[in-house]
Specification:
With 691 residues, this protein is of the alpha/beta class. It contains 20 helices and 34 strands. Helix 8 packs parallel to helix 9 and helix 17 packs across helix 18.
């Protein structure tokens, strides 16, 4: 085995970075507060984490105070620590609050004339101050109330990541309605599959969207969507471009009206005040969706208070985010990272909302060129020796796939830009390989590389970053405070070693979904999280935990675990080897198990999408098998390695391993509309028919 193999790294962790001023962080200030108030002698993150899960009610109560949650009524109790995880226990009973108020009026106060949001595309930028943002939310929330939108009503968005979408969400929260968005690149069938379940009364839609330097007209798809939503009373169109005149009759809902956003708000009086509905902690705020790759997506409902306090904990205590810090997360409005980004306003951060390709218009330089230009927007950068002093963005969030693509090109931003303000890069969406960890430190220099893990189900993180612990190669730094995460084996026993197992959470936390929409007696809710291990949250990730560092090593999804001859391992172990050893040969890969109906054992199949101009040969197959055997073990070696023209992904950029596993195993499979490139599935069906 080599130094980059998971087992070797767990035995001999490789430290890549350590913060030299941990005592200057918000996390340390929180640690000292706990020591002073409770008479503890906590000195490390691990000790603070243990205290947080041993004292769940006290911990979340302290987070409430420390992060300055604003409420109109105090809570009677935090949570019953003796209550089971399912049915979901109530947190912060008795309080009344507004998510929108906490985001628009963060504590400590921000300068109303300072920048709250920078909205950027491949071609344009828009700066919005806190004062302007508040006024736009004021106008829209009043217009929504006057139109008849009530607390609990569902408001949908078919939108891009821009200021108007942010305003729509905050106005929805201000009136107490429930927000559910899908990105405008998603097809109409997939959108209807989601929105028809929640029956929205109002829908916002962007007239057009931009990607890869092309403008796409969204209205034909919008017309198809509204035709399937009889509950819609109004469609509000954001005129994102003026290239074509809008014929509103073509997008008019069956039982409602269609109008432009400017027209919808034009009658609002200038002296009408911004008001917030004060509602329960668990009042529904977001409806998000399961992947829907193998059937109809489940509608996951998140409460306003749980999302708010969890995000504030992660941003303030874990990430050290403060008022004025600039937070840039590359995301779409269909990915839970969008909600995670938006909540940064509650810490007083300046948000960067970007809509477009991360590789336009300057190839791999594009995002860092944008960051440089944002420096001009926020403060004047200096030029020294042809290096740009990019003193703006402090947090840059992206996907593991994006960083892997930069690694393949060996692109070094630090050679072109002075990233003096950049303190953290967050990576999520898929497993970040050890070689990409090493690449980031070569390409960016000494920063906190935060490989994080969580998901749509909790709208936040189980595995989080921290300035109090080092970054180790291939590891998620730590388990999030207050999140009682363990690794269990197939028999429901806690694993104390570095052996792989399932990620579970054994104590309730406030950002658990409040319910699934239209889920009688919580049957889907229970089946999704509490059926695998009775009464224990089973998240569906296959992981290892390092006894030496306390970090997590992500191995893939539990339903994608490979089990040849009964030995379990994750697909990421194979992907990591390919990323490190064959970046110029292999563009992408998919590794799944195949077990035909009459077979007693599963075999591992590896599909390779090769780089342009690379030819697939038997010598290549032998070489890759030998490399996997050498780096991992004989049991990891795929029985079959084949070339494929394309790897299937969801719209959120996740490989659809379970679908391909079912197809090639000739099992019954229902493909949902959320697979982004469904046309490529035919190739796998043809392959399965031949084997």
């Amino acid at each position: 085995m080599t130094v980059d193999d998971e087992s070797s790294l767990l035995q001999h962790p490789v430290e890549l970075w350590r913060y030299d001023l941990p005592e200057k962080t918000e996390a340390w200030r929180f640690l000292e507060l706990i020591n002073k108030k409770y008479g503890t002698y906590i000195k490390t993150y691990q000790e603070l984490y243990q205290w947080s899960i041993d004292n769940i009610p006290e911990f979340w109560g302290e987070v409430w105070d420390f992060t300055h949650i604003v409420a109109s009524a105090p809570y009677a109790s935090v949570v019953d620590a003796t209550a089971p995880m399912f049915p979901r226990p109530q947190f912060f009973a008795g309080t009344k609050l507004s998510y929108a108020q906490n985001l628009l009026f963060p504590v400590p106060n921000v300068d109303p004339e300072s920048t709250a949001v920078i909205s950027a595309t491949e071609f344009t930028k828009e700066n919005v101050t806190w004062k302007e943002l508040r006024d736009r939310v004021r106008k829209l929330s009043i217009a929504m109330r006057e139109f008849g939108v009530m607390p609990g009503d569902r408001v949908a968005g078919y939108v891009s990541n821009n200021v108007s979408t942010l305003v729509s969400l905050l106005a929805t929260s201000a009136v107490g309605a429930i927000w559910s968005s899908t990105s405008s690149e998603i097809g109409s069938v997939s959108v209807v599959e989601r929105l028809s379940q929640i029956e929205p009364v109002l829908m916002f839609a962007d007239k057009s969207s931009l990607y890869n330097q092309k403008v796409f007209d969204n209205l034909p798809k919008v017309s198809e969507i509204v035709a399937e939503l009889p509950t819609l009373k109004a469609l509000i169109v954001n005129e994102t471009s003026s290239l074509q005149k809008i014929d509103l009759d073509t997008v008019k809902p069956i039982n409602g009206v269609a109008m432009l956003l400017d027209k919808f708000v034009e009658g609002v009086r200038a002296d009408a005040c911004l008001e917030f509905e004060m509602l329960d902690f668990d009042h529904p705020l977001f409806i998000v969706y399961s992947s829907g790759t193998t059937g109809r997506p489940k509608c996951i409902v998140h409460g306003q208070g749980g999302s708010l306090i969890q995000h504030k904990k992660e941003h303030s205590i874990h990430m050290d985010m403060k008022a004025g810090d600039v937070f840039f997360q590359y995301t779409t409005c269909s990915w839970m990272m969008w909600q995670w980004l938006i909540s940064g306003l509650a810490s007083g951060a300046t948000l960067v909302l970007y809509d477009g390709s991360p590789f336009q218009p300057y190839g791999e330089r594009s995002m860092f060129q944008l960051i440089e230009e944002l420096g001009y927007a926020i403060q004047t950068p200096l030029r020294r020796n042809n290096i740009i002093n990019c003193d703006s963005v402090k947090y840059f969030g992206t996907s593991a796939k994006y960083l892997s693509l930069l690694e393949q090109k060996d692109f070094r931003p630090k050679d072109l830009y002075s990233l003096s303000k950049l303190a953290m890069i967050t990576s999520t969406g898929s497993v970040l390989s050890p070689s990409t960890f090493s690449y980031v430190y070569k390409a960016f220099g000494p920063i906190l590389l935060a490989s994080v893990t969580g998901g749509t189900d909790i709208l936040s993180l189980f595995g989080a970053p921290s300035f109090l612990v080092p970054v180790y190669k291939g590891e998620v730094q730590c388990r999030g405070l207050g999140m009682a995460v363990e690794v269990w084996d197939q028999n429901g026993k806690k694993i104390e070693t570095d052996e792989p197992g399932d990620l579970v959470c054994v104590a309730a936390f406030p950002c658990m979904p409040v319910m699934f929409w239209n889920d009688k007696e919580d049957a889907k809710y229970r089946a999704s999280y509490f059926e695998r291990f009775e009464g224990i949250w089973h998240h569906g990730d296959f992981v290892r935990m390092s006894p030496k560092t306390g970090g997590l090593v992500m191995l893939g999804r539990s339903d994608g675990v490979l089990k040849p001859a009964g030995v379990r391992f994750g697909s990421s172990e194979i992907y990591n080897v390919l990323t490190k050893e064959y970046p110029s040969m292999v563009e992408d890969a998919l590794c799944v198990g195949m077990k035909l109906p009459n077979d007693s054992d599963e075999v591992v199949v590896l599909f390779l999408k090769l780089q342009p101009s690379v030819l697939f040969t038997e010598d290549m197959v032998k070489q890759i098998k030998l490399t996997i055997r050498t780096h991992l073990s004989p049991r990891h070696v795929p029985s079959i390695i084949e070339e494929t023209p394309e790897i299937p992904y969801t719209a959120n950029g996740k490989k659809t391993e379970t679908i391909i596993k079912s197809i090639i195993s000739k099992s019954k499979v229902t493909v949902g509309a959320s697979v982004a490139n469904t046309q490529c599935l035919n190739w796998y069906k043809d392959w399965a028919a031949r084997h």
